Amino acid sequence: MNLAESLRHPIFKVVGEIADSKKEKAFAIGGYVRDLLLNRDVKDIDIVVEGSGIELAKAAAKKLGVKKVTVYKNFGTAMFISEGYEIEFVGARKESYRSNSRKPIVEDGTIEDDQQRRDFTINALALSLNSSSFGELIDPFNGLQDLEGRIIRTPLDPDITYSDDPLRMMRAIRFASQLKFTIVPDSIDAIRNNADRLKIVSMERIEVELNKIMMTTRPSIGLKLLMRTGLLKEFFPELLKLKGVERRNGIAHKDNFYHTLEVIDNVAMESDNLWLRWAALMHDIAKPQTKRFMPGLGWTFHGHEDRGARMVPKIFKRLKLPLDQKMKYVQKLVLLHLRPIALTKEEITDSAIRRMLFDAGDDIDDLMILCRADITSKNESKVKRYLKNYDLVKQKLIEVEQKDSVRNFQPPVSGECIMETFGIPPSANVGKLKRLIKEAILEGEIRNDYDEAFDFMLLKGAELGLEKAN
Ligand code: CTP
Fold first, then answer.
1. Is residue 458 in some structural domain?
2. Coil, strand or helix: which one is 248?
3. Which of 3, 79, 218, 426 is 20 to 30 A from 452 in CA distance terms?
4. Alpha helix locations (H) across 319-379?
5. Please, are residues 153 and 120 in contact by the beta-carbon 8 Å criterion?
């Protein structure tokens, strides 16, 4: 196979010419070649040369008029950016690994040495760049066949490939979910055998792969593989704890692990927001800790939303996820995830809707997506009933929003106004009056409007013994 036609970036010809003149062999390799053959968007180009990657990078940059070349001397690599592509250069190498580190001992090698030390056959495809063989596919490990068969396989014995660099176990599952490929059975077995080697991989690297899995169209595929191979328990035991069904007096509860996966897939159909997907992953995380069997009532998970929200920071910290607004957002959605449906247990009053809007603020639409995604019962009549209630809440939300804007509640009467009106300093009464005004608005006693709130403040101020200053 020859892909000369597809190698349009000027870098390929330039590298070929320089390599020809130095009598070296140069190749495009890895993800670039894979994605070219899969018709996927490519951003990075990896070049391998049987020689010095750094020298080749410098010479190529000069020819292309690129000023800035970043050299990583320790790794023997160099990179620059050209026409929006990150182009990385490395010398072909032979590597051996030590058992306690991901960092290999490196020696110069041939292209085939280099290909066999890569993670998967589909990532070990190379295209020759020298002029006599420009665009020719170099494929000693049948990567093309695996691409066509949609298969993830390692070039070497999988035990060696994964033990050399355990991050590859996460990558295997990430590629399987991203590309909808199948991991060959002996690779799955090898991941199982090497799962505990994930310990030598930094959480930052694990998290990058996990988030890529979370961003796939059906995150459940990757999450199930993580569970089945034993990788999940290495970094996210809380999620694994959701698995399983207990039965008492003939009553079983649902398997909360599989339920959670269904919820994430449902959310993924509606939204590309990674953090909303995280909220789905965590929404029932405290169910095992709150599970009770109540005779006559069956299984209950009372308070799991509150307990779950409190578990979020610890888990985010361990997984090296951001501890900022994104975490707060996930916490909030976990805490509120039952609210929309809980509303429908009684008559849906305007004030209950206003309170939910007030608590969710701008995240109300995401909360509704999560709530809708959470309806996964196998019982059709139950689903029908829940959906009807959900639609009702949705309708009510629109009505209430039109009447009062409490989504991002700003007090219509400020603390300064209260102090000025009654001629009082900052004090407990100011806070009390503000609270009373907010409550009155949420309860629907007054509208969210300055005049009504001002009159209400005068009334309540008088009850507290305050007098209007002149
Ligand atoms: N590679 C590897 N082992 C790793 C990481 C990378 O063998 N742990 C090799 C693979 O040949 C891979 C190439 O290095 O194709 C480039 O790696 P990277 O840029 O991380 O991934 P891509 O395969 O390009 O895919 P993506 O951009 O989707 O991450």
1. yes
2. strand
3. 426
4. 325-336, 339-343, 350-360, 364-373
5. yes
* Residue pair 36/3 in contact by the 8 Å Cβ criterion: yes
For residue 314, how far is its CA from the centre of ligand 1 (angstroms)?
Answer: 30
Give the nearest ligand 1 atom to 43 CA: 27
What is the extent of the structural domain holding 99? 4-143
Give the end of a domain, one of 120, 143, 166.
Answer: 143
Give the pLDDT confidence of 424-441 residue by residue, as tens digits. Answer: 999 999 999 999 998 898
- CA dist 290 and 368 (Å) reads 24
User: Is residue 69 a part of any domain in this protein?
Assistant: yes
Q: Whose CA is nearest to atom 21 of ligand 1?
A: 31
What amino acid is encoded at 78 in this protein?
A
- Measured between alpha carbons, how far apart are the two ends of the chain, in Å? 91
- Beta strands at 182-183 and 151-152: parallel, antiparallel or unpaired: parallel
Question: Position 120: which residue type?
Answer: F
From the CA of 171, give the closest atom in ligand 1: 8
Structural domain contains residue 123: yes
12-68 confidence digits (pLDDT tens): 999 999 999 999 999 999 999 999 999 998 889 999 999 999 999 999 999 999 999
pLDDT tens track for 158-206: 999 998 899 999 999 999 999 999 999 999 999 999 999 999 999 999 9
CATH label of the domain that carries residue 18: 3.30.460.10
